[in-house]
């Protein structure tokens, strides 16, 4: 099968097109023929070698951890899926993933796509959407009427998180640059703070939950806006738990644990029109297109998602 691989850590030019063996499946896995995948910042962080100690991957590495496609084979123990099903998934974090024509995926990480969802939309949701879900629903246990602050609202995680939070009845504040203010209002955000000329920590207070997708100073200042007993999740770097304790709030680093059942919730919210991904650009499945996409993601200002049409 065709794949785009890296044989060493480094810049975008390390992404190379290659013929590799189609993966085999275990008894509890399915083989997905990938129609679309998407770019996430973890792709270039792995490519640069930032996560090599943590992940212990072997070259050649096939990056990419989102897929939408069609099941072509099922393992003997697979119960709820069959050949021909249209599915979307955030596969396990392995070194043979979704910049490829096929990927082997555990049944428990799959969800069926609604008829009305395109493969491009299906590929835009899993990693970013499930991350937002884990932070807002599992960690923060968000309730109707809560005030949540979602940093980097126009990014992959943020723009899905805003829609998810609105669908559960939260009041949503978010941060972005001037070019994304109108976009975020249209997505449903109640209060958009333009970080170029406003400091969120001076205009917000009594926030129930902060989702930090930026880190650094943004994370440090986020404690200031929380109400006593509030919660903060960073998906970028571990927050200072001592400081959290002193301030009477709960802070945590969240690392996504993929889950097909939670992805089914996105299928439901997509059908009702409550959560729809924004796709900045759909790219061809070539090494040059992926190299350019990695550069854009690394520059840090993608609106919504970059999607790759594999088929
Ligand atoms: N721990 C996990 O499991 C996990 C899972 C998913 C993602 N992540 C991490 O979370 C981060 C966000 O992921 P993502 O997929 O949402 O990234 P992304 O799509 O690349 O985010 C890009 C967005 O960030 C915004 N942004 C940049 N600087 C900002 C600032 N100072 N304040 C507010 N917004 C800012 C940009 O808006 P403007 O153009 O308006 O600046 C842009 O729309 C990444 O570091 C990623 O690696 C971690």
What does this structure look like?
The chain is α/β, with parallel strands linked by helices. It has 2 domains: 2-125 and 277-309, Medium-chain alcohol dehydrogenases, catalytic domain (Quinone Oxidoreductase, Chain A, domain 1, Alpha-Beta Complex); 128-253, Rossmann fold, CATH 3.40.50. It is built from 11 helices and 16 strands. The protein has helices at residues 41-47, 52-55, 119-124, 126-139, 156-167, 181-187, 200-203, 217-222, 241-247, 260-271, 287-299, and strands at 2-6, 16-19, 29-39, 61-62, 67-74, 86-89, 102-106, 110-112, 147-150, 171-176, 191-194, 207-212, 226-234, 250-253, 279-284, 305-309. Strands 3, 5, 6, 7, 8, 15 and 16 form a 7-stranded mixed sheet that branches. Strand 13 (226-234), helix 9 and strand 14 form a beta-alpha-beta unit. Helix 4 packs across helix 5. It is globular. The N and C termini lie close together (12 Å). The mean pLDDT is 98. Bound molecules: NADP nicotinamide-adenine-dinucleotide phosphate.
């Amino acid at each position: 099968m065709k794949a785009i691989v890296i044989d060493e850590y480094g810049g975008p030019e390390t992404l190379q097109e290659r013929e590799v063996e189609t993966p085999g499946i275990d008894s509890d896995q399915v083989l997905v023929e990938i129609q679309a995948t998407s770019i996430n910042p973890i792709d270039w962080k792995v490519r640069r070698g930032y996560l090599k100690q943590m992940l212990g991957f072997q070259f050649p590495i096939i990056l990419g951890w989102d897929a939408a496609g069609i099941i072509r084979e099922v393992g003997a123990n697979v119960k709820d899926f069959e050949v021909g099903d249209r599915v979307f998934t955030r596969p396990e974090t392995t070194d043979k993933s979704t910049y490829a024509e096929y990927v082997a995926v555990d049944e428990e990480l799959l969800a069926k796509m609604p008829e009305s969802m395109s493969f491009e939309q299906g590929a835009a949701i899993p990693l970013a959407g499930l991350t937002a879900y884990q932070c807002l629903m599992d960690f923060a246990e968000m309730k109707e009427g809560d005030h949540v602050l979602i940093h980097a609202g126009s990014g992959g995680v943020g723009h899905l998180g805003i829609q998810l939070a609105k669908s559960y009845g939260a009041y949503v504040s978010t941060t972005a640059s001037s070019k994304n203010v109108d976009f975020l209002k249209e997505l449903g955000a109640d209060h958009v703070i333009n970080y170029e000329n406003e400091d969120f920590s001076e205009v917000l207070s009594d926030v129930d939950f902060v989702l930090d997708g930026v880190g650094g100073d943004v994370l440090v200042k986020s404690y200031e806006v929380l109400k006593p007993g509030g919660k903060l999740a960073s998906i970028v770097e571990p927050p200072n738990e001592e400081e959290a304790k002193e301030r009477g709030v709960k802070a945590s680093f969240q690392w996504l644990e993929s889950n097909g059942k939670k992805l089914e919730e996105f299928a439901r919210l997509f059908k009702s029109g409550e959560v729809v991904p924004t796709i900045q650009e759909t790219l061809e499945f070539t090494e040059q297109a992926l190299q350019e996409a990695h550069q854009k993601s690394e520059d840090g200002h993608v609106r919504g998602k970059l999607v790759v049409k594999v088929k």
